[in-house]
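Incident log, structure service

09:12 report received: a user says their structure output differs between two submissions of the same chain.
09:20 pulled the input from the user's history:
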Amino acid sequence: MNAQHLPVFIHDLAVILVTAGVTSIIFRWLKQPVILGYLVAGILTGPNFSFFPTVTDTTNIKLWGDIGVLFVLFALGLEFSFRRLLRIGGTAAVTAIVETSLMFCLGMLAAYAVGWRELDALFWGGMLCISSTSIILKVFEENGLKTRHFAQVVMGVLIVEDLVAILLLVLLSTMALTREVSGGELLWSAGRLVFFLTLWFAIGLFLLPAIIRRIRRLLTEETTLIFSVGLCLLMVLIATTAGFSPALGAFVMGSLLAETAEGPRIEKLLHPLRNFFAAVFFISVGMLFDPTVFTETWHLVIFMAAVLIVGKTVVVTLGSLRSPRG
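09:34 re-ran on a clean worker, output below:
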């Protein structure tokens, strides 16, 4: 009797989840963030580490990781509605603008200091002025800090950073191709972004809550979950078609649903699904780690990490001190 053929993806998923389960328990025992356990699991099962069973099809794992980012940002939107974002908007905006501007300049100076070319320095400055929303959200959640006022301000800063990232992508991608700045394209992108957010803000305040009220009696737990995830992915499609990041679309739909009566229920139903896909995302990030690159450039890695840690601490502090109190 022939053994049944097991799809490669199921084999890979079993390997990463078992490894992640063990490493996450170990890190919890060490009183460290679980996210570190996921990253270590990605390193151990990735293509650059051969002592453990290795994932054979990293493309599928990366795809699931991309889905994980969408669920994390969708859940973030459910927790930070438009009204709440408006209340902390001044503080978040000023802090983020000061932080991104200074970190961009500091990143370029650090790149010039190690002899990088102008275009490389521009990209490095852009990378340093943006933070990982999904990682910071996960750390806040593990430490029970999501409901604290400062955490809400931090999330507001991260959202503004994501909007800045959209403009930076336009600017830097244009410069990479043409070697010159296209001010017209940058203004066009900024205008589309403002129009997109304004349109969906109006829909979130007026149209979507009315629709939810009409169908509320038909929404069981199952239909609520399917309906809300469907809306999330629909907004992802719309945002991508409009030229924005899928993560922005997921966050916007989460914020819209947070304005409805079903917002808290959707957030609760989404929690386990988000945890699963987010774990796969952090594992996929760990798979990108290449030990040989670190051993060859360890001095450069340490220098840039120091610039990032010290620079972020100083400039975010300056930005928050200059911002209006939220």
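09:41 both user submissions now match this output. Likely a transient worker issue. Closing.
09:42 reviewer note: The radius of gyration is 21 Å. The chain is about 80% helix and 0% strand.
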